[in-house]
Design goal:
By secondary structure, the chain is of the alpha/beta class. The chain folds into two domains: 169 residues, Immunoglobulin-like (Sandwich); 252 residues, Rossmann fold. Strand 13 and strand 14 form a beta hairpin. Helix 4 packs parallel to helix 6 and helix 6 crosses helix 7. The relative contact order is 0.17. The N terminus is likely disordered.
Length: 482
């Protein structure tokens, strides 16, 4: 077995004995959708029950908060703009699925990626020339359906979708002042949309900027920041510049739009700096009003990095589900994520915010196959002496995970979930959200889809929109006094 060097936060070298490759834990393609699950165990004790009640109450409050932080869909034209690198533009999707326009949904000019066309006008939103299926299509199309369901006046408010990202770019290269001027393409799409709306004497505003980027900053060897604090600073500066120049400047809008991210991960994850990019994104969503994290990227069908066409439309539907909550329902939103990580002897307990309880250990898709749930469920423990093997792991009540180590901890102990080394940035914990997308999984044998994309448990069925746990690397703190 191979051994891989890790560097702990305290500078101590760790040696991790690798498990067999991820592909060795994959099930046959015909497995039932996410059917391999582990249910919660009965309540352990009164202290656990009390913490579970507190977690449930905190999660319930999220649904009642958030109104007024970001503008709703109140303009005649409401712009949803996806920005970032390759996954934001649907790179390598091989097939276009969203080829039929929905009433009330538009793009500026004749392409969802605005091409600088002069005298641009609003056109029906569909996949444009080429073979890509950008996630903005799935997002705006499903958001239209949700908007129509929620509001009797939805037909009076058009949605505009744009995909303005550029493949293979770090956050620095997408920022103001970088050359080539990718940032200016974003401004041009806003300017063209504002001009087109003005010509119709209609109101226009940016409702949301959806950010899908981080892969290049996770990649070693680039001339850009790979650190958590460095990435946060760069992305917050980019957001500030977009709000100042595109939102307030070009659009003339007073309200700051929602800034909705995914969490970079899966094959593009990197353990070197302790999941630095994913942790930076999550910390921004926790601390900055108006910034949200819709989902980690790992659960969606992919080609070992880039998503499939179904994967892009699927993650787009998840963005729409979150946009519906914050733009239409006036709720706050938090992804499935830890509230606290505590230690008591050899025992680690993780309290979660769970959007739709209870927690479930389940099988995500790795590539185009369901993965068998491994014994450690995608979790890893380490301390000053190295990796701590896991004796047991279980879900307790609705909102907690308990992990017991095989030995006493030496110094500080850390919990990592969905790391790169063992499971290629994937995890095995989700909630019980029963929401289904409007779009269904498509397989066309005459297309460029690969044969193993013919997933019989998915074909012809709506994409399930569970909320999967974010990836994280956190220190366990001494258990709170009971």
């Amino acid at each position: 077995m191979n051994k891989i060097q890790l560097t702990a936060p305290f500078g101590i070298s760790l040696r991790l004995v690798c498990l067999p490759a991820v592909t060795s834990i994959l099930l046959a393609a015909g497995s039932p959708l996410h059917a391999q699950t582990d249910a919660a165990t009965p309540p352990a004790d009164a202290a656990y029950a009390k913490r579970n009640e507190e977690n449930l109450a905190a999660s319930a409050r999220v649904k009642k908060e958030g109104g007024g932080i970001v503008p709703g869909l109140t303009n005649d034209y409401n712009h949803i703009i996806f920005y970032g690198q390759s996954l934001s533009v649907g790179a390598d999707s091989k097939q276009q699925l969203s080829t039929t326009a929905k009433d009330g949904n538009y793009m500026i000019s004749k392409a969802v990626a605005f091409n600088g066309e002069k005298d641009a006008k609003f056109e029906p939103l569909v996949a444009g020339p080429g073979t890509d299926e950008p996630p903005v299509l799935g997002a705006v199309n499903y958001l239209r359906k949700l908007f129509n369901d929620e509001s009797p006046d939805a037909s009076k408010h058009a949605l505009v979708g744009s995909s303005m990202g550029v493949s293979g770019r770090a956050v620095e290269q997408l920022s103001k002042g970088a050359k080539p001027k990718h940032y200016d393409r974003f401004l041009s799409a806003v300017q063209a949309s504002k001009t087109a709306a003005d010509l119709e004497k209609k109101s226009y505003g940016i409702a949301a900027i959806c950010w899908m980027q981080g892969e290049s900053n996770y990649s070693p060897g680039g001339d850009w920041t790979p650190t958590k604090e460095g990435y946060k600073a760069k992305l917050l500066k980019l957001r500030d510049d977009l709000n100042a120049e595109a939102v307030k400047g070009v659009a003339g809008q007073k309200e700051v739009p929602a800034f909705v991210m995914y969490q970079t991960g899966a094959a593009y994850s990197n353990d070197t700096n302790f999941l630095s990019i994913g942790m930076a994104q999550w910390e921004m969503a926790q601390k900055v009003p108006g910034i949200y994290m819709a989902t980690p990227v790992y659960p969606y069908v992919d080609y070992g990095g880039h998503l499939t066409a179904n994967g892009y439309r699927w993650i787009g539907a998840q963005f729409a589900k979150v946009l519906n909550k914050i733009l239409i329902k006036g709720e706050d939103w938090k992804p499935l994520s830890p509230r606290s990580v505590q230690r008591d002897g050899r025992k680690i307990t993780i309290d979660y915010h769970v959007p739709e309880p209870p927690l479930v250990f389940a099988s995500p898709y790795i590539g185009r196959k369901l993965a068998e749930i491994p014994p450690d469920k995608g979790f890893l423990l380490y301390d000053s002496s190295g990796i701590v093997e896991i004796e047991s792991i279980r879900i307790v009540n609705d909102t907690m995970v308990e992990i017991v180590g095989k030995r006493d901890f030496d110094g500080d102990v850390y919990v990592r979930y969905a790391g790169k080394t063992k499971y290629d940035g994937n995890g095995f914990l989700r909630d019980s959200d029963s929401t289904l997308a409007e779009d269904v999984y498509v397989f066309d044998p005459a297309s460029k889809q690969l044969p193993d994309e013919n997933l019989t448990e998915l074909v012809g069925k709506p994409y399930p929109l569970y909320n999967w746990s974010i990836a994280f690397n956190l220190k366990a703190e001494p258990v709170e006094a009971k």
